[in-house]
Amino acid sequence: MAADATRCRQFFVQKLAGSFFTLISIGSLTVNANADTVVNIPRENGALHQEFKNLLHEQISQFGNNIGRIELTGTSGSKKCFANFYTNEESTFLTIDVPSNKSYKEFYIDHPTQSFKPILFQKLILSDDGIEIKVVKRRFTFSIKSNGQTLAINTKSKSKKDKSPSCNFELSDINLYEGETE
Fold first, then answer.
1. Which one of 2, 29, 69, 86 is least enclosed by Cβ atoms within 10 Å?
2. Neighbours of 54 (CB within 10 A)
3. Domains of the chain, residue spans
């Protein structure tokens, strides 16, 4: 009788383990079907800024001393929007404005003295349609995505009062101002 109970338990454990491995296999198929590679960006000073500089390397490298402003004019739905990246050796400051919606946002993408407490995660997402930097904070989320020709900036705030602008830009239509800082 004890042998039957042991055999029954072994059979149950095998079936349970088989079901578990089937679930894992199905989960990995979903990840592979999306063809996205997600890389965690360390929560360290300068790590996010370095990924941003890599994303816009072609534009930032035109600044002789890596200090300057990148001005973009694009669209948010059917409305005009404007963005400015003020970049230097250690940080990048972003302003994004959709005047017709009265929505404006400004924030540091990375700053040497910032606290990492409000940051839940920051990731680099590589996909067939471009590279995206995504940062999720407790009260605010932003992503910057580029495929080399276009750039999309998406912001989202937890506050219902705060209008969070999102815009799309053509990278061929930018203005560079060397030496300008925020």
1. 2
2. 12
3. 1-34, 37-178
